[in-house]
């Protein structure tokens, strides 16, 4: 390639230290799954308004679910150097938790040469941000917490699960 050389191995830098997209063309396509989780913590009155349909912008959980699914499909447009992937499934659940939180879980699947961790994390993040956006008029103190990868399956590294004992 004029002006540069490729680095060996899976790295986001070429031989000259410039950022590049990792070449995954030699990796075999395998079934891949990633599960990410997070929560939005809010005042009890905010969650009560969500549950009763009292948010003026509409169905908060339904809109957040759709936003998260759409975001997973657009992850490569949002995250630099992230591979565009054909996702075979995106499942996003938003469940009220106690009186002050909404738990969010994304399950993303594909068959390909690279994983879907970023897509699952993006889905949870955008869903949480959508809840915040739709409810901020009544509760600007909401927080997004614990967004992280819970599980990944497939690829060379196989199964990985977050340590939940801490």
TrEMBL record:
Binding locations of substrate: 81-83, 118-119
Keyword set includes Lyase: yes
Keyword list, A-Z: Lyase, Molybdenum cofactor biosynthesis
Catalytic reaction annotation: (8S)-3',8-cyclo-7,8-dihydroguanosine 5'-triphosphate = cyclic pyranopterin phosphate + diphosphate
Catalytic-site annotation from UniProt: 133
Presence of keyword Membrane: no
PANTHER family documented for this protein: CYCLIC PYRANOPTERIN MONOPHOSPHATE SYNTHASE (PTHR22960:SF29), MOLYBDOPTERIN COFACTOR SYNTHESIS PROTEIN A (PTHR22960)
Assembly behavior: Homohexamer; trimer of dimers.
Protein name in UniProt: Cyclic pyranopterin monophosphate synthase
UniProt organism field: Teichococcus deserti
């Amino acid at each position: 390639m004029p002006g540069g050389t490729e680095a060996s191995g899976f790295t986001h830098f070429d031989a000259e230290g410039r950022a590049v997209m990792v070449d995954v063309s030699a990796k075999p396509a395998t079934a891949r799954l990633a599960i990410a989780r997070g929560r939005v913590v809010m005042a009890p009155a905010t969650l009560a308004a969500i549950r009763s349909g009292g948010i003026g912008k509409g169905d908060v959980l339904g809109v957040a679910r759709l936003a998260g699914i759409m975001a997973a499909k657009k992850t490569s447009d949002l995250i630099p150097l992230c591979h565009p992937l054909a996702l075979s499934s995106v499942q996003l659940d938003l469940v009220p938790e106690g009186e002050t939180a909404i738990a969010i879980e994304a399950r993303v699947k594909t068959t390909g040469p690279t994983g879907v961790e970023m897509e699952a994390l993006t889905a949870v993040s955008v869903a949480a941000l959508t809840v915040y956006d739709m409810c901020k008029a009544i509760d600007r103190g909401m927080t997004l917490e614990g967004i992280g990868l819970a599980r990944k399956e497939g690829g060379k590294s196989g199964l990985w699960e977050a340590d939940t004992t801490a």
